[in-house]
Amino acid sequence: MKQRHQRRTGQDEPQTITKAVTHIRLEAINGGKLAALDALASVYLALCQQYVILFCTDASPDKFHPPVFSAPLSERWHRVAIQQAAGIAQSWRTNYANAYQDYLEDLLDYREQQAGGTLDPQIEEPTWKEWNIPTLRQTCIQANANVIVLEPSQDSTFDYWLKISTLEFRKQLLVPVKLADYHRQTLQGKTINTSVVLNKRDTGWWLTLSYDEVIPVQTEPSAPVIGVDVGIANFVTTSTGKHYGTFHGKLRERQKRDREKRRRKAKLRKCLEKKGAGKLPSTTSRSGQRLIRHVRQEINQAVNSALLNILMYSLLMSTYRLLQ
Fold it and tell me: I want to staple 143 with a disulfide (CB 3.0 to 4.6 A). Which of 99, 148, 162, 254 is the partner?
């Protein structure tokens, strides 16, 4: 089961998590319905591929982009294809930009070492290889209630029915959905979201559902109160006098080296900007990103250690009260 966290909420507000229920096989579908679904998927995939190419080359990814290609699909299906293609193209563009930025940073480091006479003769100059446009090889339909509706089954051996709009005007396809015991237990008492995902594999068609789960934040009234301070010298300091995590030592030295590197890149960027260069190197670097991840890991370890000790302290205090 996959889960995706929603936006951050307040400290005492309930947390909402979207969980996905995967691997629901549509094994009860007959041959005629299967052929209609395959025909729909073939047209949908081709249209989605056209918009992926458009959003990766000529137009910026836009889920509300007006239709520009013709296809034997309804306007609603057309909109779903545009939204899915925009998401794919946006991810590709982001990864492409990050990879090209890494190339510029590697090239800059190479030139600096070459000019300073510290270049290893075995290191080759970085080269850039253009990326290919994403090709949709696997059939995946990310649909909403405008084109696919999940309805509970009434007086049937199936659990749900998928009502799918087809290529034919005002003709819908009813696909039975039979859940396994695990799926049925997971979805019991849950409100299923209107968005669904259909995947076609060699073994047939598979369905993915999702639901939102609200996790309340509860604190026992009798829980002891401990003050926590967040700082730089020590990441976490509690009112009991304990310190967790520190920014001194090797972490501080790495931060100093990264700061000097960003300063040099900022000067180079300003110089290239005055000369009218088209693409400018970023002041960030892969080593800087690794440093950020390392600092986050150190902070997380400090917080986890503090929470564990606070939990043990609370448990000892509760036991002490019971023994009194």
Answer: 148
